[in-house]
Design a protein that fits this description.
7-stranded parallel sheet
């Protein structure tokens, strides 16, 4: 009940659709209703569904994960489509370390992403393909860039082998970032340049769009980096062929959760904070984002 009570203010936030076009739900959430009895999938402009069953330890590869959930997925897709889902998401989790990731981990996760995407399209849903290179660790931005490129190349090789229609795929990648424990934390302009430079090397032009994940960044930092990425991407030198947007979770929800704190009396303030975070992210796509937006009261 507490989880449902937390989700209701998010789903019912007034005018949220001006900034966020859809939300990714879980199996539990897609079957729930708002407090006034309206299904979440109808209260939202667009609803999607997370279909993987989580990252599990990869046998024989200490410290690495493989995402599971392919068994029975065709039947689950039929169920989710009937419930009103329009798109889906599958997340692969990749760790950087001195000896990681292994080629086996990258290729196994890329293959699973491709099989999922093919099944999603078969069911009439748009697949969001999420190969996430984790921020944990002390790796440098340069190391992240190299590994991100290798990971994305493998993913799109497997999508091609799996005959997935790229014009019907949304890529949800990490930004190119130094690890959280790295001695050097590069400025947003460097992050933006490295992220945009990586994409044309690995991502085919046919892909419908790219929606960056936040991956544990704060709301303010994720928005600032997103704004810098879009500023670089719109220059004549870059000319990226895809729309670049956001698909943030914690970066949007964490400050809202702190305000709400499980109390009905805080719903209004929490919704105002949620709209502010969404508005900042929307502004990051159009060149309108600035520090003053963060200082403004919700």
């Amino acid at each position: 009940m507490l989880r449902r009570a937390w989700r209701d203010p998010i789903v019912t936030t007034p005018n949220l659709g001006r900034c966020i076009s859809g939300a990714i739900l879980a199996d539990e959430t897609i079957r729930q209703t708002t407090l006034d009895g309206q299904p979440f999938v109808r209260a939202l402009d667009e609803a999607g569904i997370k279909v993987d069953l989580g990252a599990k330890d990869m046998a024989g590869f200490a410290g690495e994960k493989i995402t599971e959930g392919l068994d029975g997925l065709r039947g689950r897709f039929a169920d989710y489509a009937a419930l009103g889902a329009r798109f889906a998401k599958w997340r692969a989790v990749i760790t950087i370390d001195r000896k990681l990731p292994s080629r086996s981990c990258i290729e196994a996760n890329a293959h699973a992403l491709a099989r999922y995407a093919a099944l999603a399209q078969e069911a009439g849903l748009v697949p969001i393909v999420e190969p996430e290179l984790l921020m944990t660790g002390s790796h440098t931005l340069a190391e992240c860039a190299v590994t991100t490129e290798v990971l994305l190349v493998s993913v799109f090789e497997q999508l091609a082998i799996g005959r997935v229609a790229l014009e019907g795929v949304i890529l949800k990648p990490n930004m190119v970032l130094p690890g959280l424990d790295a001695a050097k934390q590069d400025p947003v302009e460097v992050v933006a340049a490295a992220t945009v430079a990586c994409l044309p090397i690995a991502v085919p032009a046919e892909v419908a769009g790219i929606a960056f994940l936040s991956g544990g960044q704060s709301g303010e930092l994720a928005a600032a980096r997103l704004a810098a990425i879009n500023a670089v991407a719109t220059t004549a030198a870059a000319r990226v062929p895809w729309p670049l947007t956001f698909s943030f979770a914690r970066a949007i929800q964490w400050p809202v959760l702190q305000i709400w704190a499980g109390r009905a009396a805080n719903v209004g303030s929490a919704q105002a904070a949620l709209f502010k975070r969404a508005e900042c992210n929307r502004a990051a796509l159009t060149g309108e984002y600035c520090d003053a937006m963060e200082q403004r009261s919700a």
